[in-house]
Amino acid sequence: MTWAFPDGQNNIMLETLVQKALEGEDITREEALDLAEVVDPMALFFGANMIREEKRGNKADLCSIASAKTGACPEDCRYCAQSSAANTQIQTHPLISRDEIAQRARRAKAHGAGRFCIVTSGKRASSGELESIAGMASAIRDEDMKPCATLGLLDANELAMLKKAGLHRYHHNLETSRRFFPEICSTHTYDQKLETIAAAKEAGLSICSGGIFGLGETWEDRIDMALELRELDVDSVPINFLVPVKGTPLGEAEPLRPFEALSIVSIYRFLLPEKEIRVCGGRVQTLGEFNSMVFMAGADGLLTGDCLTVSGRDPADDMKLVREYGLSTDNDESAT
Questions:
Q1: What local confidence, expressed as pLDDT, does residue 311 receive?
Q2: Which of 183, 179, 187, 280 is nearest to 228 (CA)?
Q3: Is 307 an active-site residue?
Q4: Among residues 104, 115, 222, 278, which one is catalytic?
Q5: How far from the centroid of its chain's Cα atoms is residue 60's Cα?
Q6: Is 280 a catalytic residue?
Q7: Of 80, 185, 280, 307, which one is the catalytic site residue?
Q8: What is the CATH number of domain 52-334?
Q9: Are 243 and 281 in contact (CB under 8 A)?
């Protein structure tokens, strides 16, 4: 691989850090903060793209989700339209059926997704719900997709039961840094999140964990969360951008600007060069016309289709973007 940055002090630093990442050396907190100060975002994206191509190859990982149980959540997360802290008009519903999950997974696969995630609202899924969800995981496997789940603060025994039923990956976001977390949620703790991730790893599940940006956090918070995720050695890192929803405590927050959002993606690629970096909720609303730059900025995964309470991007448009970049997906490989 040959590449070169234009002359300039920042670009000398970028070239050094790209090389460091490619050689398997960890980028430090101080170096990551330097990256956040780079005034030429295109140079930052260029470096992140080099790392993506070398460490992640010519592949895009696409996933889709279903809100299997929506609303009536007792948690007080300040960004969420489903929480007890929100005054929103979302439609609530209990757990949907196995057949409905199978149908949605089938549609997602037809649109290019290789993973399908079952998501429930609330602090944790109940024991009865978990029995039904185990059947859903098996149904997703029957569709030749990788089943994932987001079910809250479960323990190792519950997660082991889901693993036995065929669950491949457990998703549980840190959301933000340890320092900033009390500013966005008071009904559970950061340590409870870490305990859940540890329990999922103990059960032998792949781990998907990241956060949401634009909550009022600093660059230090963003970088500290990335370093925590590196220490946890998670497999996939979802990057979400706040979509301010009227009726939530953060409903009047100022949305991130597109290049700041893409710079977050790039810096996470520098810090987590070998991990899946997946751009998820808020992608359409935050990036707008710059959505086409997600892979150039260092991402190698997308949540495609609608999100939980905000609209996503048409899967056909995402597949067109993947093809235009010359990337392959799991579906391409399973068809060969």
A1: 63
A2: 179
A3: no
A4: 278
A5: 14
A6: no
A7: 80
A8: 3.20.20.70
A9: yes
Segment 42-92, tens digit of pLDDT:
999 999 999 999 999 999 999 999 999 986 788 999 998 887 777 777 778
Given a contact cutoff of 8 angstroms between Cβ atoms, the answer to whether 57 and 326 are in contact is: no
User: Which one is catalytic: 73, 185, 280, 307?
Assistant: 73
In order, the DSSP letters of 261-302 are HHHHHHHHHHHSTTSEEEE-TTHHHHHGGGGGGTTTTT--EE
Model confidence, pTM: 0.94
- Give pLDDT tens digits for 98-149: 999 999 999 999 989 999 999 998 999 999 999 999 999 999 999 999 999 9
Q: What token pair was written down for 300?
A: 């190698």
Active site residue 63: no
Alpha carbon distance 4, 11 (integer Å): 9
Neighbours of 301 (CB within 10 A): 26
Please report, as a single letter, which amino acid is at residue 109: K
Q: Which residue has the tokens 């990241």?
A: 210
Cα–Cα distance measured from residue 201 to residue 105, given in angstroms and rounded to the nearest whole number: 25
Specify whether 73 is catalytic.
yes
Q: Which of 185, 208, 280, 307 is catalytic?
A: 208
Residues whose CB is less than 8 angstroms from the CB of residue 257 and which lie 6 or more positions away in sequence, other chains included: none
Residue spans of the domains in the chain: they are 52-334
Give the pair of three-digit tokens for residue 31. 């170096």
